[in-house]
Design brief:
single chain, alpha/beta, six-stranded parallel beta sheet
């Protein structure tokens, strides 16, 4: 019997997720949206490409949580996207209301699902979602680090004019302006990035610009699109998490996960490397951070904490 993935929100990310999941034949797909026509239209459109692509999965669109019942995986993109000049934080009030409804819907219909949240502001929304749905913390995660890491890899590959496959790196912390790209843990063809700096293949200044561009990666795309925000790369990142769970791949992926003392952080979601397998988040991989990395990571945690306090002021039930 095929697995079932429900996508909450049939916007640009939702539609792209559905298409990628279908092509990979990961699971049957239910596209949920309060606008039933959009969900049904996209599901039908993607389904009609199956004869060309040769995939064999069912795709349905709906505006009823009942149709998402007993999902194996739920990926949430529902919410208002950022507009030019808008910070992720500005989204908080609107998207908290939406995520509360989603959390209660999941609790009722799919209490055993592995839930991936993509809605911004990510770290706080995933934390609120876990509280609203009351699902175990190992089954509720946020997609951010994979996307931020992929952006960092892409910018480095372009700067060094090498294949992106040669780069191994990661980005930690909250998904915002204080995220923590890790140049000191970056290898190019298994050689440390600092070797490339000492050989003058990349300047310290250019590396700093890449780190800054990574932090502002989403805002750059929003500015270019003018209407809407990134959707192809976020969808690819969400699918990687779902696949690791469904296929028990036990991949080490940077995700917004619940920390209970790891990295000196308690009762907070933040971006760290985790092992994703059939039990959800099976392990938090605790890296030994150097002083500089720790400083930036703690700064990122402060920003997440501050925003979560703002969320608790908006909705006291989160306290």
């Amino acid at each position: 019997m095929r697995k079932k993935i429900s996508l909450i929100g049939a916007g640009q990310i939702g539609g792209t997720l559905a298409h990628l999941i279908a092509i990979k034949e990961l699971a049957d797909v239910v596209l949920f949206d309060i606008s039933a026509g959009i969900a049904k239209g996209k599901a039908l459109d993607i389904a009609q490409s199956s004869g060309v692509e040769g995939f064999d999965v069912d795709l349905t669109g709906t505006d009823s949580y009942e149709d998402t019942k007993n999902s194996d995986v739920i990926i949430i993109t529902a919410g208002v996207p950022r507009k030019p000049g808008m910070s992720r934080d500005d989204l908080l009030g609107t998207n908290l209301k939406i995520i509360k409804e989603v959390g209660l819907g999941i609790k009722k219909t799919s209490p055993n699902a592995f839930v991936i949240c993509i809605t911004n502001p990510l770290d706080v929304i995933v934390m609120a979602l876990q509280k609203y749905s009351n699902l175990p913390t190992n089954k509720v995660v946020g997609m951010a680090g994979i996307l931020d890491t992929s952006r960092f890899k892409y910018f480095l590959a372009k700067e060094l004019n090498i294949s992106i496959k040669e780069i191994d790196t990661l980005v930690l912390g909250g998904h915002g302006d204080f995220m923590v790209p890790m140049p000191n843990r970056t290898t190019i063809g298994k050689k440390p990035l600092k070797e490339f700096i000492s050989q003058k293949k990349i300047s310290t200044e250019n590396l700093e610009n890449i780190v800054d561009r990574t932090r502002k990666g989403g805002a750059e795309i929003i500015k270019l699109l003018e209407k809407g925000s990134a959707f192809y790369a976020p969808a690819s990142s969400g699918v990687e998490m779902a696949e690791s769970y469904l296929k028990n791949q036990k991949k080490v992926l940077p995700c917004a996960a619940f920390l209970n003392g790891e990295y000196g952080v308690k009762n907070l979601y933040a971006g760290v490397p985790v092992v994703i397998g059939e039990k959800g988040v099976e392990k938090i991989v605790e890296l030994k951070l150097d002083n500089e990395e720790k400083k930036y990571f703690n700064k990122s945690i402060e920003a997440v904490n501050e925003l979560f306090n703002a969320a608790k002021n908006i909705d006291p039930s989160l306290k």
